[in-house]
Amino acid sequence: MNSLEQAEDLKAFERRLTEYIHCLQPATGRWRMLLIVVSVCTATGAWNWLIDPETQKVSFFTSLWNHPFFTISCITLIGLFFAGIHKRVVAPSIIAARCRTVLAEYNMSCDDVALQKTCTSLN
Known about the structure:
Order of helices and strands: HHHHHHH
Helix content: over 70%
Radius of gyration: 22 Å
Number of helices: 7
Shape: rod-shaped
Oligomer: single chain
Number of strands: 0
Structural class: mainly alpha
Strand content: under 5%
C-alpha cells in the first residue's frame, strides 16, 4: 500500500468515525436530559421527604407511601441505571476512547477536540 492509499483510508476512517459519533449525539442528548430531569425530581422529592416531620415518626415504608413523588422518581432513577443509562450518556466518549486505544497501536492519535470540531462541522 502506498502512502496515498493509506492517507485515503485514514481519511475514510476519520469520516466514518465522526459520522458515527455525530449520529449518536441526538440520542445521547436525550438520555442526558432524561437523566437530569429524573435526578432533579429525585433530589427534590428527597428534600421534601427529609424535611417532613412525619418521616421521623412513622416507619420507613409508611414514609415512602406518604411521599409518592420521591418514591416513583427514585424507582425510576434506579431503573434507568439498571437499564444502562450511565453507558448511553457517555457512549461517544467510550467509542472515542476505544478508537484512541486501537489507533495508539499504529502510532496514531485521536483526540476529543478534533472529533468535536469535525462533528460540529458536519452540522
